[in-house]
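Recap quiz, item 2
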Amino acid sequence: MRVYWHSDSLLHDPPHEILSGRLVTYLESPDRVKAIEGALEQSDAFEVIAAETDWPEDIKDCILAVHSKEYVEYLENIYSEWTAIGGDKSAVFPETFQHRSMQSFGSRNTNSMSPLAKPGVYCFDLSCPITSHTYRAAIASVRITLSAARYLATARNGSPHFGVFALARPPGHHTQDALCGGYCFLNNAAIAAKYLLEHHGSKCIAILDIDYHHGNGTQQIFYHNPQVLYVSLHADGDYPYFTGSSEERGSGPGLGYNHNLPLPRQRTTDDLYCDTLRKAADIIQDHAEVDYLVVSLGVDTYSEDPICDFLLTQACYPRVGEIVKSIEKPTLFVMEGGYHMETLGENVRGVLLGFEGRR
Ligand code: OKS
Ligand code: ZN
């Protein structure tokens, strides 16, 4: 299986975040990429490739098919605006959040706002500090994902089990059209889905999100869109807290194209997880029009992960890969979460080898 990565994705390295009120070292560290790459290089099943720099379609247009221009300009420019008025040089952090009850006095154009105010419009939490290199890293993450998507669309050899892995970082599934959070700046999986629809003649994409957390961003981006079927397994009632209920089914023409399968914290075992994943696979297979599968791959479902309350063992990951394989679609795996450094690489490798029918 081909694996795409890019060294620029390591440049995003914020000093800290706030987790349950504590100032801690940033969990979503560049070492994650090195750990995953190291584990994949131990197997001859993988070929690791640097994402190409020449991109025929304009990468910016692909991003703007998902995210607003104002939001992308925020990511690009806020660090210099913030430091110019004396903000801390390590990273931009929100100082306030524009709560919905504070929006009723006429919405001002964010261009006229102080650099101290903008993060409160474009961020929903404190996990998206923007350093001098964050924008560049986020673009690299998109480049990785689009390179993998293009390879999937052009080089697939007719086998229904054809897969490719985008070792993307920073992750993406929490980013909405104009709102970042949860370590995510640009929604890689959503951008890839749009790219396959608009540039490779796809009629319908399924996004299967198996990260521990609900992908509120991907859900929001495609909530009204019947061309993208979003199916998510995630911890019930955990971060990002306000989304992920099974009652969120899509809206307007998108009604019926959003499926949330929340799982109980403290009680989700390998068997319950795999049974639920088979239900997700059935939902996707019920939509014969799906021509590509995008998997938002998080392995923060592992029991030892620092922010996980499931009971999964490492033996679960090859089983997850086999179930994804059973969907029988050309498949783009896109990296999302996973923070237990000792097992992160092995667990990702387990999923991908399970998909390939190997050990
Ligand atoms: C608080 C961070 C809370 C957890 C963020 C979860 C990120 C993730 N600063 N999403 O899939 O793994
Ligand atoms: Zn996660």
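The chain has a mean pLDDT of 96.
Residues 83 and 89 are 6 Å apart (CA to CA).
End of item.
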